[in-house]
Amino acid sequence: DEAFEPLPSWGMEKIAAAERVFRQWKGADETVVIPVMSDLHDWSPDFVRPVDWKSHKSHILFAREAGRRFGADAYVDLGDIGLDLVWRVGPDGKGRTEPSTEEEHKRRIATEASLYADLKVPSFHCVGNHDLGNYKVFRFKNAAYFGQALNAPNRDRGFDVKMGPDCDYGYWDVPGKKTRLLFLNSFDLGHAYGFRDEQVAFVAKALDVPEGWTVAVFTHWCLYQEIGYWVSDKPFAAKQVKNLEKVVALFEAFVRSGKGRLAGIFCGDSHFSNYAVRNGVPYYLIQSYGWAITKRGEVAPGGHHRHFLRKNDINIDVVAIKPATGETKLFTCGVTGL
Predict the structure, then answer these.
(1) Per-residue pLDDT tens for 298-330?
(2) Residue 318: CB partners within 8 Å, gap ≥ 6?
């Protein structure tokens, strides 16, 4: 990436291999391309030079390169960029994670914004459950600071993004491609999973698309918990999460209406990958950089956790959609392949 420094060959080769498969699948068809990151959980507020490839956020540079090669229409981060904790070395010389301060928290957000600021397409950030602070030192009252810092700048860069008042959820229509990208805040109750009534109403309006359009939805928390839970935790009952049933019902009604196509609901949070279709709605669970799984056997049925070392491998997922048919495919750059 010319804006930073040459990327190491061990990452570039994985991107090139995935691109070859993408080109074969794409053929002459029009596509919408969205490189997706999630669950970076990066505990350093700053971007350092020379680049430390063990740092999760440095791998955003690989996502940028994947976007350049695939022809990205937008970028999406599904949340948990790494705000509630920071890595410190104590007097004993040992490193440890500690709750971040307000200043460290805001520096991390500024760093995240800087890694997308010069792109020629928009970037959207979903709010994760680790993105609003911690309970010991500092936490934001709501997602307004996060949204204003990471999503609002898209408007300043000339993109007509429709957003809620805090810019923590919204949608954008890909020019000329009859595709709407809708990003949600699934941690919308201050510090709890769920959706405020205002966001539910916003989603309902966002799904009122012209005939034949395709919609792709991005959110941190998996809205189909049966494919996204850790076994030791067990899935949330839908009734435990405010307005979850209402939001899901909106997507199911959209599919039944036949007015448009739902490419999928793309989720993070769980630190493993999975896929299922329920009542016509495709759910894609994306591991990305979520690496912490407490023990073997934690993933929900059908799920898969990819183990990789950040110092010499990548795990970038590129969502590709053919708007004319709604056909959707994920191309994984790195780890075990495609």
Answers:
(1) 788 888 888 887 888 899 999 999 999 999 999
(2) 18, 22, 33, 34, 35, 36, 66, 67, 70, 330, 331, 332, 333
CA-based angle 317:319:324, to the nearest 5?
Answer: 165
Structure tokens at 40: 């970076």
E strands along the chain, which residues?
A: 32-37, 75-77, 85-89, 95-99, 123-125, 162-163, 170-174, 179-183, 214-219, 261-267, 274-278, 281-285, 315-322, 327-334
Q: Please give the helix or strand (H or E) that residue 29 lies within, else none.
A: none
- The stretch 110-125 carries a mean pLDDT of 96
Question: Do the Cβ atoms of 284 and 302 come closer than 8 Å?
Answer: no
DSSP state of 222: -
pLDDT in tens, 57-97: 999 999 999 999 999 999 999 999 988 888 888 889 888 88
Q: What are phi and psi of 118, to 5 degrees?
A: -95, 5
Alpha carbon 334 to chain centroid distance?
17
Of residues 119 and 51, more confidently modeled = 119
pLDDT tens by residue, 283-297: 999 999 887 665 556
The residues pairing with 194 across neighbouring beta strands, listed in sequence order, are: 187, 242
Which of 247, 267, 263 is closest to 214 using CA atoms? 263
Block residue for tokens 């200043």: 103
b/e per residue, 104-142, with b = 16+ CB within 10 A?
Answer: bbbbbbebbbebbeebebbbbbbbbbbbbbbeeebbbeb
- Using one digit for the tens of pLDDT, what is the confidence trace for 223-256? 998 898 887 776 666 667 899 999 999 999 999 9
Residue bearing the bigger pLDDT, 29 or 105: 29
